[in-house]
Amino acid sequence: MGEAVTRTEGATESRARAALGSAAFVLMILVTFAALASVPWSESVLEPCHLAFLATALTVLVYTWQRFWGTRVGPWERGITAAFLAGMPLVYLGRYLLHRPAAGGPWLELELLGLAAYGGCAWLGLARSPWFLVVGIAAHGLAWDVWHFHRSAYVPDWYSIGCLALDVAISFYVATRIPRWGGKGP
């Protein structure tokens, strides 16, 4: 009897994880479309914020491919996620270098600190635990993007808001993928 109950609980848990993964996937897709729709595309597509949104859309396409057709999900998807996280602070650093604020201040040091922090999370996500990727992506949105909103003279507010929404949605989705990577998930 105990074995049958354990199998039933396992099947229920498996269905719940699948439903959570599907919900996270749909949320990520919807947020990606909403973020892309909010971008003022009249500016140069080669500008760092525009390139970041295009790179995010490409990352989401890779996640979609991996979700439905990927065979070697674990290492490849984890590597893409680490590259995505490591690239996030490059957008802010690039914007700073292109649009340096006249007032000066510790902005360059702040962006270099972000490069080290999020690059470190990406490395730890590959070397130690994929949960560093989830935490790093979520922290980028909830801390870095929120902090830059209305404070930065060189990062537009539309980018901070869109990046925040994307980071939260993508980190939620990545958390549901960790079991496929060979780790323990939600």
Features:
186 residues; mainly alpha; 6 helices
How many separate domains make up the residues? 1
* Unreliable runs: none
SSE topology string: HHHHHH
Which structural class is indicated by helix and strand composition? Answer: mainly alpha
- In helices, the fraction of residues equals over 70%
Which geometry do the CA atoms define? globular
How far is the first residue's CA from the last residue's CA? 27 Å
**Number of H/I helices:** 6
Radius of gyration: 18 Å
Q: Give the amount of beta strand, in percent.
A: under 5%
Quick one: how many beta strands? 0
The biggest beta sheet reads:
none
Mean pLDDT: 89
Task: Describe, in short, the structure shown.
78% of the residues lie in helices and 0% in strands.
How is this structure best described in words?
With 186 residues, the chain is mostly helical. The protein has one domain. 78% of the residues lie in helices and 0% in strands. It is built from 6 helices and no strands. It has helices at 2-38, 48-69, 73-98, 107-127, 131-148, 157-177. Helix 3 packs parallel to helix 5 (131-148) and helix 5 runs antiparallel to helix 6 (157-177). The model has no long low-confidence stretch (mean pLDDT 89).
